[in-house]
Amino acid sequence: MPTAGDQVPGGATDFDRRLKSLEREVRELRAARRLQNASVGSGGLRIVDGGRFSMETPEGRRMVDIGAISSSDYDHADGTKQQAIFLRREDGSLLFACFAYPLGGGSENQAWTFYDQNRNTILAEDTGSGTGLARPWLPMNTPTSMDSTQWPRTAAASFTTIATAWNTKWQPRLRVYGLTAAVGGGTGEVQLLLNGSAWGPVYSAGATIDNTDTIPDVDIGGQFQLEVQARRLTGAGTIAAQILMMYSRQT
User: Fold this and answer.
1) Res 4 pLDDT > 60
2) Strands 238-249, 223-234: pairing kind
3) What three-state secondary structure class fits 154?
């Protein structure tokens, strides 16, 4: 006589298989649901066997990417994939990375690097020595005479460059501090030029130079020229100036 199981499409065996498959899918769905609000205990979280860890914004922009670099350009000399770290801003622009490039024949020491929003390198370590910074290159002040008769000077009646310096832009603004003097009597003026254009006010001889402003029309990592100009207005002496301190700074 036929049994109740015989009335099931595919028979009782097929029904049992489908039921077990359904139970497995429900368990997987429940596990996935729990991961939306999961906690990791004292054992920690391990990603092994070439796995990756990533995080994306709701719009699909990758912000965190830890694991193997997919491009073969970054493979190790032995052909294995390089493991790296990339952190991005919410808009997808690169913020921080830790990787080595190029590989094969060169150093495989990974360097950490911070980037601005235009992907210029603003801070990186020195992988050659393993000590200190690679970027930026930071200037240092040099000893300067405080005897105004030893400073750069001019007796010209028109603005004349008496001192100049080249620097690399790593921050958007620059501060320049220095002294001026009318040596031997008379009056005069001093001004600063940045890449050939007046930068800051005109100073009367004897005044202190102290100006902080933007460094215009120069990309990060690009060079700019600062000139100190002076002119004599009256008298028979000379107009002198000496820069004592320069440094770049944030906005």
Assistant:
1) no
2) unpaired
3) strand
